[in-house]
Amino acid sequence: MSSITRFNSSLVSHQTFVLIGIPGMQEQNSWVAFPLFVLYALTLLGNFTILYVIKSDESLHEPMYFFLSMLACSDLGLSMSTMPTMLGVYWFDSREIPFNACISQMFFIYIFQWAESGILVAMAFDRFIAIRDPLRYRSLLSNSVIVKIGIILFSRGLSVCFPIPFLIKRLPFCKSNVLSHSYCLHQDAMKLACADTRVNVLYGLIVVMCTVVLDALIILVSYILILRTALSIASRKECLKALNTCVSHIAAILIFYVPMIGVSMAHRYGKHLSPIVHMLMANIYVAVPPLLNPIVYSVKTQQIRQRICNILQLGKNRE
């Protein structure tokens, strides 16, 4: 064993991280546990309902709803990657997480996060094609094209996240092993390392620029083109109808990006903020988007709303 390896090994003083619930108020964690469980149950119910409705109703076998299915799968993946750990912290005070499990969790969080960002881009492109060239909409976005887009999006998320476990595992940890949240994030664990983390910081910056920032710019350009196309429609009623099909997608964009930006800004510039603020923002970041997306699409999309009402009505008739 080389001297450098022995030095790094001697620095590693722990093989687990400690997650926290309400900072300084651990005895109050149980008050958060039940609402969090209800939120998790509603998230699973909402997204599985979206998937079931789209699968069972052939009239919804269109590009827009296939992309919505991808969004629901991404939301389910994010929830299942984080919520069990969070419930363990708040409900059972199970705060220790093995080092490798922590790395695995952050890996899957980022996979589904970057995949969701790409799906929102694909949905913007879908809306642009539907408004710009409705007669060729189905031919341009055929089932095979949509499958290829889905594979590319999830492959991008996998390739972008692949280096993260290796970047974290190479770091020695000799400081506190207490994380700032009830789940694992790369930037949170990185702060506990007692070594130079510039490579991690640089890679994180490159990933954000090449995924979230680039995706946001593409979405912005798409909506500029959508707005130009809609305004060129002679009929005001048809123009408003075309723009109305984008409302749910715009809401999904805000639901995804606002909490992400908030958590990133809090990590970078919010050191003076109360730890409780950091806790709330981190929980909103992973818990709220998967909950709200199916609600928004169920409320704003008439076909999905009608299909859900039919299912509920059928259930009542059986009773």
TrEMBL record:
Q: Give the PANTHER family listed for this entry.
A: OLFACTORY RECEPTOR 51H1, OLFACTORY RECEPTOR 56B1-RELATED
Q: Which PROSITE patterns does this entry report, sorted A to Z?
A: G_PROTEIN_RECEP_F1_1, G_PROTEIN_RECEP_F1_2
Q: Which organism is it from?
A: Podarcis lilfordi (Lilford's wall lizard)
- InterPro entries named among the record's database cross-references: GPCR_Rhodpsn (IPR000276), GPCR_Rhodpsn_7TM (IPR017452), Olfact_rcpt (IPR000725), OR51/52/56-like (IPR050402)
User: SUPFAM superfamilies of this UniProt entry?
Assistant: Family A G protein-coupled receptor-like (SSF81321)
- Where is the protein found, in the record's own terms? Cell membrane; Membrane
- Gene Ontology CC entries for this record: plasma membrane
**Primary location:** membrane
Kindly list the residue ranges recorded as spanning the membrane.
31-54, 66-91, 103-125, 145-168, 201-226, 247-270, 276-297
Q: Which domain of life is it from?
A: Eukaryota
Biological process, per Gene Ontology: cellular response to lipid
| Name of the molecule in the record | Olfactory receptor
* Pfam families in UniProt: 7tm_4
Q: Which residues are in the G-protein coupled receptors family 1 profile domain? A: 46-297
Query: Into which family does the record put it?
Result: Belongs to the G-protein coupled receptor 1 family.
The UniProt keywords, alphabetically, are: Cell membrane, G-protein coupled receptor, Membrane, Olfaction, Receptor, Sensory transduction, Transducer, Transmembrane, Transmembrane helix
Please give one Gene Ontology molecular function term for this protein. Answer: G protein-coupled receptor activity
Could you tell me the membrane topology recorded for this protein?
A: Multi-pass membrane protein
